[in-house]
Every structure is written in C-alpha cells, then in structure tokens.
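hey can u check if this looks right to u? its 217 residues, i copy pasted from the old doc so theres a chance i mangled smth
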Amino acid sequence: MNVLQWMKRGLVISSALLSIGLCVPTDFVRDVHAEQPDKTQDEKTENPLIYKVNQESYELFHEVLPSKTDDYIHRNASSADLINHFIVKQAHEQSMRKFGDTISGKISNPFEESILPLLQTVIRETTKTLPEEEWAHLKVSTNPAGGLGEKILHLYNEENGKDIFRFHVRRDQPPKQGYYFNFHYHTYLDHYENHHNLGTIYWGKDMPPRWNGEDRV
C-alpha cells in the first residue's frame, strides 16, 4: 500500500490512533481528513466495523479529531496494523531528525530499504503480545538522543512509565574498517537482556558527526 492510499484511510487511521491514546500531530490529522474518500453505496450497506463510543471518555478526542466524526471510533483488528504503521512512520521521522542533514543525506536510502522493513516486522511481533488494557496506555517517545546517545525511539506504558520496546543505533569502529552504524532493538519480552540486531550501515573512513547535527567529537 503506498503512502497516498494509506492516508486515504482517513478517519479510520485517526480513530485507530485515538483508541490507544497516541498523540497525533494536528497537521497530519488535517491532511488525512482532506484525503478521505466518499463512501460508495456498497460500502455504506456493509456490516459496520465500528462501535459507538462516548467521546467524553477520550481526553484527546477534540484535539485529535476536530472534524465531525459522529462519535464513532474504529475498533476492529485492522487498528493494530494502522497503529504499527504509525509507529514505524514516527521511527522514520525521528531517525532522520537524529541523523541530521549530513548523516541522513548519506544513509537514508539504505536505512529505508534495509532497516525500516525489519523494524516494522519486529514492532508488529512485539505489540501483538500486549494485553488489550495496555494498548490504552501505549505512547511513543519524541526525543531521540543527541551527541553520542543511542536512543531513536521508545514505546512505553504511559501509566507506569515502563518501556516496551527500544529502537537504538550504535556507532561501531572495527579496527582498520572505518565507521558503521549498527541498528538494533531491545524488548520487554526478554527483560532487555539481549541486543537484537536489525542491520548495519557503513558510513566511511572519516569520523561521522554527532547525532542531531552537533559538532564532531
């Protein structure tokens, strides 16, 4: 599914994200609504996959969904897929911000082709293990580490503050081989004891700049 088709899911995407309490940028929601297609008569007569909810039960209802929604929120199984797509989209955006212009200009293509597809798979495998009540408190971190820090993005439970999934990148310098970026993750499923490799991207012989476009070491 390409980006335009995904965005055209419109209210379904916005509603699915709302159902777990994720903070969605207002501009993103506005674009999604603008792309929402008109339903055909056949679509209107299909069995509904949504349930009536009390909008007052959702603290961010009016902030996230400013348009008229008739108080309906999508609740079927496809919500998980849409939410996982959103998480990966956030991981991509925060990675680019962490890399800064110099690093992203050189490694963005291999990152998008090799790392992101694997990340999407492991996020899906991780989130499907969560109990239903935990989805309501799932949050995405918004501040990737600068300098030499490894953090790109964390998924965590807002209620108790515990991490669920950590997406990191580490700088490696094997002897006489130059510099590499190692992308990996840690998960609550093994109590963060293991380092799960996603892939490595070669930078070059020269030392890369610090994350977030900061000065070199």
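The helical segments are 3-7, 11-19, 26-34, 41-45, 61-64, 78-127, 132-135.
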